[in-house]
C-alpha cells in the first residue's frame, strides 16, 4: 500500500482549486520510485535548435508552442 501526502492550491480563477498529490513520498517507497527513469525523462530543446529546424523546414514554416498545463490527466495504474 502506498500513502502519499496531498493538498490543494488555488488556481488563477477565483474559487477554483487544484488537487496536488506528492507521489515522490515516502522516499525509497513512493509511487514515483516504481517508474522506470527512462520512461519519465524530459528533454528540452534550445532556441538555437528551434531556429535550426525552422530553417531546415523552409519558408512558410514556423515553430509552435502549446500550453498543456490544463490538459493534465490522471493516468490509471495497472494493478495486475
Automatic annotation (TrEMBL):
SUPFAM superfamilies per UniProt: DNA/RNA polymerases (SSF56672)
Which InterPro entries does the protein's record reference? Answer: DNA/RNA_pol_sf
Name this protein carries in UniProt? Reverse transcriptase domain-containing protein
Amino acid at each position: 500500500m502506498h500513502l502519499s501526502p496531498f493538498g490543494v492550491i488555488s488556481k488563477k480563477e477565483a474559487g477554483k482549486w487544484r488537487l496536488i498529490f506528492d507521489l515522490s513520498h515516502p522516499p525509497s517507497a513512493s509511487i514515483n520510485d516504481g517508474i522506470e527513469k527512462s520512461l519519465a525523462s524530459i528533454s528540452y530543446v534550445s532556441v538555437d535548435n528551434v531556429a535550426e529546424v525552422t530553417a531546415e523546414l523552409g519558408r512558410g514554416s514556423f515553430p509552435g508552442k502549446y500550453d498543456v498545463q490544463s490538459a493534465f490527466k490522471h493516468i490509471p495504474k495497472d494493478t495486475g
